[in-house]
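Hi P.,

Sorry for the delay on this. The queue was packed all week, but I finally got your sequence through. Input first:
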Amino acid sequence: MQLEKIYQNYPSLRPIETKAYLTTDIYDLIVPLIFQKIYNMMSITDFQIYQIESEDSNGRLLRGFTIIERNMCSHEFLLAYDGRIYYNHEPIFLEKIDNYINKLVLVCYELGAKKEYFNMKIIDRLKMEIEGITLVDDQATIYLAENGLSATEEYNPAIPAQKKAIYQTALSVLQSIANNPATMKNYKQDDMNISSFAKFLQSRINQLTNTIQSMPDTNEPTSFFNLFRN
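Then the structure:
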């Protein structure tokens, strides 16, 4: 009763209630990037800033920061484990930030929780799909252009059409090699003979073909969190 009375008088102390859609590893990795993005968007010039920590209703540690203006007006931001930003203990929706969070989370679930993946270029994402194939950047750039992609554009897993075009580019690369056996020796992995490499190549081609057929063409961003939220 005493605790509830405190919460009634000071509602900002009440623990934030959220579901856990983020792992701790992902949370710890993306939280400083998100708050740097928010800070860069703010136009306040005369202030003090402090890192803060809090707990949600399940005892999970939440991290954030508080900005206190010269007139003592405070702005507290926390990232919850459901991917929402809380401003002064209330959820806020900032399209630019929400899209950024969504992109970071999708990258983590697709490629792994590594900071170097967050600013990956399309050409680098293609190379991941054709791992084991040696392809110089000039060749990769041409293949990507033929599928409507710019090699230097930043990869965004939230855009289905972009991801599908990368898979289609990878398929084009593999099919080109498979249709020209004389060049296989230039691409094959060192520990494979030509016959084994050809079987590996065909298996990967079949896999990519099946994957592409099930992928949408839309440029409408995919939201990781919409898969779970009502």
